[in-house]
Amino acid sequence: MSHDADETRQGRSQPPSDSDPGNGSPSFGAGPSTDLMVRLVQASPVPMILSEIESGRVVSANHQMESILGYPAKELTGEISPNLYYNPEDRRAIVKLIREKGAVQDRELWSRRKDGSPVRIILSSQRVLCDGVELLITGFNDLTELTEAQSEVQRHQEELAHVTRLNMLGEMASGLAHELNQPLSAIANYAAGLTKRMENRRPDPELIRDTLGRINEQAQRGGEMIKRLRSMIAKRPTKAETVTLNTLAKNVLDLCNQQLMEHRVVVELHLESEASPVKVDPIQIEQIIMNFIRNAIDAMDETPPAERRIELTTRPAGEKQVAVAVRDHGKRLTQDQLDSVFDPFYTTKEKGMGMGLAISESIAMAHGGGLTAQAHPDRGATFTLTLPVYTPTAS
């Protein structure tokens, strides 16, 4: 089947960052005088200083700088600008880039307030030749409020993800209880059989050893399931680990096994033979895969039992990316559904919250990845999570 005819909805994905700090910006050249540049700095609504490249001496600073560093403008004038950096090496690195490219744009680093405390800033700096002296004109922005806002957004995202996990596991409660009961029942049966064998005047040591091994195996199986459930239920901050999508996919199938059997759904598992690692929060990524699988099960409610099939695939996805995809063979998504599928509160289920895929997309974006939805011409849909491959040098 050609994918050219398929309809695809691309989820929002993390935009690539521009790692070039200078972007090849040209210098002002030899035009402006020092007096003109001082007036420009003083008139700027952006916190700004003018300093000598060689000595680091501040020639001029405007009043807006006080809001960031706590220094009145008069105190900054004549100050040695490397002292304003929490790490003086940062200024030397900036000067080196200025020498090479003429400018530095949107460089994040730590500066030092008057009271000695650090403050996260973003700066852009331009070389300018004034009256025969090389100067730097540098604009600053305080990232503290932005960082705090981002932390608050992340906290709310973690809260939403946690609530969604609880809701999802609550709907799966009966199946999970049955799944957990299986190793417990097996342990009880093995223990009863062992008791009978021990009543024998000459019990077989090898048989006893084998039975104890089976009891231990079932106890570990139950323990692993409880551990996985506790991890899914726990309210916790995001914690990145190096794992493979193969491992996460198999973990999710273990939790969904009973629900799949109850709905008579067969899973075809196609795992990448040489799985590339990703650095992610495993619980959050498992949450996305579980959401895909549960949606696939629901989509096949009206599919004849013999045709209820899910294809779970992990694979490379372009350069330095990997993907996990879940395809169902249920109702075909319409174009309207495809356009809205990642929107908050959109659902085709009578009792659905409509937040599962929206939260999944925000989790994917926070990990530098994205989601896509694809409707197939015959029937069914494929939902795909794409993540960047983790390499220690790139971290």
UniProtKB/TrEMBL annotation:
InterPro entries: HATPase_C_sf, HATPase_dom, His_kinase_dom, HisK_dim/P_dom, HisK_dim/P_sf, PAS, PAS-like_dom_sf, PAS_fold
Domain PAS stretches: 33-100
Assigned EC number: 2.7.13.3
Sequence ranges of Low complexity compositional bias: 15-27
Keyword entries, A-Z: ATP-binding, Kinase, Nucleotide-binding, Phosphoprotein, Transferase, Two-component regulatory system
Catalysed reaction, written as an equation: ATP + protein L-histidine = ADP + protein N-phospho-L-histidine
One Pfam family, short name: HATPase_c
GO molecular function, one term: ATP binding
Biased composition (Basic and acidic residues): 1-10
Keyword Transferase attached: yes
Keyword Cell membrane: no
Chain intervals for the UniProt region annotation (Disordered): 1-33
Residues of the Histidine kinase domain: 175-391
Stated name of the protein: histidine kinase
